[in-house]
Amino acid sequence: MSLEGRFEDGVVRVGGDARQRYHDSRGYGYPLAGNEIALAPVEAAHLLYRGDLAAVVDGDERLDFRSLLAREPGPDFGVRFLVYADLRERGFYLSPAAEPWIEDPPETEFAVFPRGKGPDDGEIAYALQVLGERTDVAGRDLEDGVLAVVDEESEITYFEVSRRDPSGSSATGLPDGCSADLLADRVVVWEPPLELYERTFYGQPLEGREYDEPTLQCSLLEATYLAERGALGLDPAAVRERGREVEGERFDRRLRVYAELRERNIVPKTGYKFGADFRTYADVESVEDLGHSELLVRVHPADHVFEPRDIALDVRLAHGVRKTMVFALVAEDDIEWWSVERLTP
């Protein structure tokens, strides 16, 4: 016999043998007195959708699945239901990330439990946030967990979002006062030591691959970094100012990220071919034995607001070239690093 629920104080209360039938065996809701349980509206909607709950009574109204869905009880109810139903179909139990459903909940919308586990087992596989494809995401609001984006055709894409702490072991030694000329949008370094290119991977040889003693063409980012550390015989302020003239306010922001990566023993090179600011190499021993870059880095100010469509584009491209997409959010005093990758739950 199917049970009925009733709306009361924002939840759907179900009596009878609801605790054994829905909570203990299938992870829905949280227990009340006796065998009664309380369901979140999205949980009740899923039970109605499956035909496991006969109706939800609200005052004089008796709601079926269609009627409850049309009411949209709560913000973004439609997209939240789609994600809830999808994960249930994939074999996961999940609950609203709130007490009393679970103790010490994450600051997100849903807590998704490992397969075979439920809300009483104390384990969370994913802290899940849900949004539609037209809902922007502020960089300051990023959290470790999973982002589920529902597009206009109700398809769902899952992204794993996590803080990153980039590090590497690339060579770091620099020469002193190499002769160099500042051009319109780059710097030419004359007769540098071979190690500047072959070991620490600064610039590109003017001679291409055939050289005995390379003449290096350096980007303004590379040249500013080198000049500020005494490796080039140029005024660092003049090189930095040229970068600002060429690139505007982005230059200082990108320079901070470039310098931070170098200080972490990572080699950043242009990511232009991949639509990013940088591609990075963590463990460069020599240019001759250079492997594939590991990360694509896109630089944004700390108050940047992401459009889900842009996240999808960046992550798809990075995945297609077997790299991880990392966003560097630059604040006045620090840089936050966030990696975003496609996830199949």
TrEMBL record:
Give a single Pfam family match: tRNA_int_endo
The EC designation for this entry is: 4.6.1.16
The residues covered by the tRNA intron endonuclease N-terminal domain are 4-69, 180-233
Q: Please name the top-level EC class of this enzyme.
A: lyase
Sorted alphabetically, the keyword list is: Endonuclease, Hydrolase, Lyase, Nuclease, tRNA processing
Reaction catalyzed = pretRNA = a 3'-half-tRNA molecule with a 5'-OH end + a 5'-half-tRNA molecule with a 2',3'-cyclic phosphate end + an intron with a 2',3'-cyclic phosphate and a 5'-hydroxyl terminus
Its Gene Ontology cellular component terms are: cytoplasm
Question: tRNA intron endonuclease catalytic domain: from which residue to which, for each copy?
Answer: 251-337
Which function does this protein serve? Endonuclease that removes tRNA introns. Cleaves pre-tRNA at the 5'- and 3'-splice sites to release the intron. The products are an intron and two tRNA half-molecules bearing 2',3' cyclic phosphate and 5'-OH termini. Recognizes a pseudosymmetric substrate in which 2 bulged loops of 3 bases are separated by a stem of 4 bp.
Q: Which family does it belong to?
A: Belongs to the tRNA-intron endonuclease family. Archaeal long subfamily.
Q: Which PANTHER family match?
A: TRNA-SPLICING ENDONUCLEASE SUBUNIT SEN2
Subunit note = Homodimer.
Name this polypeptide is given? tRNA-splicing endonuclease
